[in-house]
Write a sequence for this structure.
């Protein structure tokens, strides 16, 4: 029984990795590596800061990996890949918009604070 299972698993992985592997599969694997790299970027940034942080690179890798994975889904005509990636990409872009808005608001506060100090002096 274990010999048969071992043989069947071997055939399955041969079919998966060798027989069916094409340019789109290579692109899909690359997309997953790009998408996964965001966690490496986040981990390194958190280690440097000695606290949990989400750097901008995390969001850019999320968008790039998400778009690549969605393209792969379109190429494979797989709705199970396309729909969640489309929603996720929207969320990643929205996070960048919120970060940008917060930076502009913080920049405005600094400028307002400087003007107050200058007029008081």
């Amino acid at each position: 029984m274990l010999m048969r299972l071992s043989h069947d698993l071997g055939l399955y992985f041969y079919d998966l990795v060798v027989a069916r592997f094409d340019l789109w599969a290579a692109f899909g694997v690359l997309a997953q590596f790009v998408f996964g790299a965001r966690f490496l970027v986040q981990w390194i940034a958190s280690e440097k800061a000695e606290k949990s942080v989400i750097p901008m690179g995390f969001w850019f890798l999320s968008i790039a990996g998400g778009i690549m994975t969605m393209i792969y889904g379109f190429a494979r005509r797989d709705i199970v890949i396309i729909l969640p990636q489309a929603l996720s990409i929207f969320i990643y872009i929205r996070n960048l918009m919120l970060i940008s808005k917060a930076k502009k608001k913080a920049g405005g506060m600094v400028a307002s604070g400087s003007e107050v100090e200058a007029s008081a002096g």
Observations:
- The longest helix spans residues 79-120.
- The CA atoms of residues 63 and 89 lie 6 Å apart.
